[in-house]
């Protein structure tokens, strides 16, 4: 009972609102004080009337801005991936149950760097999706705890800010940096047919049909053509040779060294995959076999993003 | 943001602010000319100062230095200089590129103008301009807040914004009144400016009376002064003469006064012993800027003047009085308006001041036909009184009253008597005075006012009530004679104009009593009334109430507060009251739980229904029906009747599960 009372008092004392005075609001308050002093000094009732109007404007401004933000619900729609130090888009869905909201600004509370998103009007029952361009100053997992919604409506003299708890997590990939040295070919993986420079795994596009040479893998025989021609015909694929590279990042590094290593690895992953390499990754605690394609690149980037964040994985 | 609603309402707000400072009529002429010019350019979206910031700021600084110099040399009042500069800054910002920042600067300088207006004026029109400024400025500021995305706001959303702003503005105005009433008055109206020069004086209370002019003033409905009378005559209209000045020297075209001013003093008593008369009427005057003269008027015949105060831009200050022989009283200093007390004796001929032996009968070189006419009109009477009365009667009978007297003539009196045969009060008064002198009866012309209309508990006298008449020295005392036909005595303003000015006058009276003179004492009595309603009689209660109403304020406020709380409570209860269909859902869930469906609490009803249907549960048909009706009742316009509700729940009981 006592605990509940204390918590309700705390809630009353800390209503989760912040009032920021805008530059024009500062001048407005100075003028209000000046007019108030003038009224007190002279006893001029018309100055009291002007003062009353200015004070009432402050009160009504507070009430109307509260009406704008108190009933607002916000949902964060994060991108699938984001790179550190590179701008990315965060979308926010704003909705309210009743009434209207005007001049609403949405921004992340104390985490990502973002100018925020802007919604001029929000009408009850009609969700509004707005976009903000954000930047993460570092790679790694980000816990997004809260969103700030604010408004300067109606008069622009105060900005009322409400912080809404909306929990999400965002994995920020390392920035793609330039590597000084080209990575070495991954010799450890060249075993069996994979190790052969003439390996044929049947995965590439069809390039040609030719007679099977001696010593070549009999599993690649094209049986229908062999039956037609009466010769052992093998399939020539476009990519006759697999180029595989495994990138190494020493997770025991720390600070900028680890960051640079991750950024290099991310940059090389993109570059090598573009050149047709299968790229693998070894970060000590996690090892990814060489492969290619966007999903694999995302796996590598995720592993790089988590490098050094062992406890948070 | 060119010619957007924000910019247009910004300009209108600036206009209201300018109106507030222009109202007292104290702004220098260049400023009065520049602002309308700048406003028109801004409304036409012509912005000559866009891109010329440095040059224009330098010009403003030079003007500021000039104004500072004028203040330093006492050539200009500090407040007037400040509002002049604020007006020029407003113009500067209006003619610059209409950025949100420039618009906000216009509004802030407009606020300075309104505050300056509050310091300079006391007119009720200020309240109108203040409200206009507030509404336009609120509108503009709201659009400035939305300026970043104004184009993306459609018309329905504009209407929604407008609704919010209108509600907010009304709430602000009501709250501003509440602040005004309760904000403690810690000073005592020491520098209250109650009046302003306005459009200047119009009463014609000048140092001379020159014949030949038109009578435009008679159509003016502007209030010249307000006066309260004790004892109160309680009539709607007064048929009274208010004496201002006496003129005894006539040169053929113009009347002058020959008296020499006496030493200024705080009180002036006239006609020794007359103050003890039982016919005394006490008067409390307050002249307006329309009066525009230092001459003090009072009911005929004045006996005493005192407690004179000058109402000027620097406030109300006591003023000495100057007595000029011939019963003319002047204020010692120039001012926008005056307040003073006077007493008069309306019944007795108490003015026995002998006329100047030469001046009282002096006649300039006039048309000889006038003397012949005077003899003819006097009808051979020999007694002074009879001569005076005959001349008065005949002039009134034979000549017409008119205000249409265009042109300038060399001998206005002859022109009136023999050519036009029509004139206004000055012509009649002059003709009578001169004819009396030609008949050896000392006479003089008096200017002042005739009439008076009831306005609240006081009377107002308008500029149009300005009048001139004649006094003749008959049987040892001055006798008032008025040869002007009755139709021309009082103001001849348009009936609609008079009705409007009457209403305006009542509003002004309310404004002065309830707003301008609202004081700490009023606050105390208001607070007392809230705590303990007055047992005073109705008129007293009305007088002490700041809102001027007979409703007992304490209970009224309590009732209002109680009603407000009740509305809030009902709203809260409504907000918290569950939907009628929710109780059905609760009952349904309870029945299902009783029938052994365990996951009722964790799974939404529609999912539970689908799950039961998939598993072929015997309760499934009944649950499906109940679910469908619950969803319809909860989210569509098909409420659940009590009978149907009972049937649905009963179906659950009877199903074999």
Describe what this molecule looks like in 3D:
The complex is a heterodimer of chains A (313) and B (657). Chain A has 313 residues and is an alpha+beta fold. Chain A folds into 3 domains: 10-173, Immunoglobulin-like (Sandwich); 200-237, no CATH class; 242-312, Translation Initiation Factor IF3 (2-Layer Sandwich), CATH 3.30.110. Chain A contains 7 helices and 15 strands. In chain A, strands 1, 3, 5, 7, 9 and 10 form a 6-stranded mixed β-sheet that branches. The two termini of chain A are 40 Å apart. In chain A, 34% of the residues are buried. Chain B is of the alpha+beta class and 657 residues long. Chain B has 4 domains: 5-152, no CATH class; 209-499, no CATH class; 519-574, no CATH class; 580-654, no CATH class. Chain B has 19 helices and 20 strands. In chain B, helix 10 links the parallel strand 14 (400-401) and strand 15. In chain B, helix 2 runs parallel beside helix 4 (78-94), helix 3 (53-72) runs antiparallel to helix 4 (78-94) and helix 5 runs antiparallel to helix 6 (125-145). The longest helix of chain B is centred in the N-terminal third of the chain and has 28 residues, at 155-182. Chain B is elongated and about 135 Å long. The interface between A and B is large, with 42 and 56 residues.
């Amino acid at each position: 009972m006592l605990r509940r009372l204390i918590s309700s008092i705390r809630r009353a004392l800390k209503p989760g609102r912040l009032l920021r005075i805008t530059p024009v609001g500062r001048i407005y308050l100075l003028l209000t004080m000046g007019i108030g002093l003038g009224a007190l000094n002279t006893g001029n009732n018309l100055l009291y009337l002007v003062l009353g109007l200015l004070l009432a404007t402050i009160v009504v401004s507070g009430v109307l801005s509260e009406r704008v933000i108190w009933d607002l619900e916000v949902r964060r729609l994060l991108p699938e991936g984001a790179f550190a130090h590179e701008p990315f888009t965060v979308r926010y869905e704003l909705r309210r149950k009743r009434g209207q909201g005007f001049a609403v600004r949405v921004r992340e509370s104390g985490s990502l760097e973002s100018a925020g998103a802007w919604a001029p009007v929000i009408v009850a029952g009609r969700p509004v999706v707005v976009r903000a361009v954000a930047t993460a100053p570092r790679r790694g997992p980000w816990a997004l705890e809260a969103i700030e919604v604010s408004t300067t409506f109606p008069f622009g003299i105060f900005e009322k800010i409400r912080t809404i708890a909306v929990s999400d997590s965002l994995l920020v990939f390392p920035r793609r940096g330039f590597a000084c040295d080209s990575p070495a070919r991954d010799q450890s993986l060249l075993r069996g047919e994979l190790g052969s420079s003439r390996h044929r795994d049947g995965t590439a596009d069809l390039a040609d049909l030719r007679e099977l040479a001696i010593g070549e893998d009999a599993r690649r025989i094209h049986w229908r053509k062999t039956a037609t021609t009466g010769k052992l015909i093998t399939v020539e694929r476009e990519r006759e040779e697999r180029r595989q590279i495994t990138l190494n990042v020493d997770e025991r590094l720390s600070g900028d060294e680890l960051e640079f290593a991750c950024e290099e690895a991310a940059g090389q992953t993109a570059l090598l995959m573009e050149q047709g390499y299968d790229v693998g990754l070894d970060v000590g605690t996690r090892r990814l076999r060489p492969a290619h394609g966007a999903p694999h690149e995302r796996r590598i980037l995720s592993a790089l993003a988590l490098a050094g964040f062992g406890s948070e994985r | 943001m060119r010619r957007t609603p924000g910019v247009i309402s910004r300009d209108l707000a600036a206009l209201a602010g300018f109106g507030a400072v222009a109202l007292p009529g104290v702004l220098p002429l260049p400023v009065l000319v520049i602002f309308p010019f700048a406003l028109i350019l801004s409304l036409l979206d012509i912005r000559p100062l866009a891109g010329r910031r440095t040059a224009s700021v330098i010009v403003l600084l030079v003007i500021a230095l000039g104004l500072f110099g004028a203040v330093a040399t006492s050539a200009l009042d500090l407040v007037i200089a400040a509002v002049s500069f604020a007006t020029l800054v407003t113009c500067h910002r209006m003619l610059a590129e209409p950025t949100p920042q420039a618009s906000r600067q216009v509004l802030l300088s407009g606020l300075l103008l309104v505050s300056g207006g509050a310091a300079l004026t006391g007119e009720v029109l200020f309240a109108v301009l203040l409200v206009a400024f507030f509404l336009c400025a609120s509108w503009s500021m709201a659009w400035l807040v939305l300026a970043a995305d104004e184009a993306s706001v459609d018309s329905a959303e504009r209407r929604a914004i407008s609704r919010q702003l209108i509600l907010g503005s009304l709430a602000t105005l009501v709250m501003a009144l509440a602040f005004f009433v309760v904000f403690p008055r810690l000073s005592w109206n020491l520098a209250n400016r109650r009046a302003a020069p306005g459009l200047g004086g119009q009463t014609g209370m000048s140092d001379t009376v020159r014949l030949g002019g038109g009578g435009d003033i008679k159509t003016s409905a502007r209030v010249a002064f307000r006066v309260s009378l004790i004892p109160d005559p309680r009539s709607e209209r007064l048929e009274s003469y208010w004496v201002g000045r006496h003129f005894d020297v006539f040169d053929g075209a113009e009347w002058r006064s020959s008296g020499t001013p006496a030493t200024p003093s705080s009180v002036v008593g006239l006609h020794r012993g007359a103050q003890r008369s039982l016919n005394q009427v006490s008067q409390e005057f307050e002249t307006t800027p329309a009066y525009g003269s230092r001459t003090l008027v009072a009911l005929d015949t004045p006996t005493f003047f005192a407690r004179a105060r000058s109402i000027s831009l620097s406030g109300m200050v006591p003023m000495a009085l100057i007595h000029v022989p011939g019963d003319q009283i002047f204020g010692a200093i120039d001012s926008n308006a005056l307040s003073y007390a006077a007493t008069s004796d309306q019944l007795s001929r108490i003015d026995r001041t002998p006329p100047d032996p030469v001046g009282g009968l002096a006649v300039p070189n006039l048309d000889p036909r006038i003397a012949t006419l005077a003899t003819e009109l006097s009808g051979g009477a020999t007694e002074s009184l009879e001569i005076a009365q005959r001349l008065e009667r005949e002039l009134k009978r034979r000549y017409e009253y008119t205000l249409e007297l265009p042109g300038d003539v060399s001998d206005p009196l002859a022109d009136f008597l023999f050519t036009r045969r029509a004139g206004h009060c000055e012509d009649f008064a002059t003709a009578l005075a001169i004819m009396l002198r030609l008949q050896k009866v000392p006479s003089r012309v008096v200017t002042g006012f005739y009439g008076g209309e009831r306005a609240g508990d006081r009377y107002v006298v308008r500029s149009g009530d300005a009048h001139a008449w004649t006094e003749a020295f008959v049987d040892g005392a001055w006798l008032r004679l008025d040869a002007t036909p009755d139709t021309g005595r009082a103001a001849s303003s348009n009936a609609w104009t008079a009705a409007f000015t009457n209403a305006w006058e009542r509003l002004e009276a309310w404004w002065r009593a309830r707003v301008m003179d609202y004081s700490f004492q009023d606050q105390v009595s208001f607070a007392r009334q809230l705590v303990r309603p007055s047992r005073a009689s109705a008129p007293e209660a009305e007088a002490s109430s700041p809102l001027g109403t007979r409703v007992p304020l304490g209970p009224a406020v309590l009732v209002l507060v109680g009603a407000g709380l009740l509305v809030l409570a009902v709203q809260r209860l409504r907000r918290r009251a569950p939907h009628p269909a929710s109780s059905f859902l609760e009952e349904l869930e309870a029945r299902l739980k009783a029938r052994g469906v365990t996951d009722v609490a964790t799974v939404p009803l529609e999912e539970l229904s689908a799950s039961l249907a998939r598993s072929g549960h015997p309760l499934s048909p009944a649950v499906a029906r109940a679910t469908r009706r619950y969803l319809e009742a909860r989210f569509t316009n098909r409420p659940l009747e009590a009978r149907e509700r009972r049937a649905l729940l009963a179906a659950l009981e009877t199903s074999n599960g």
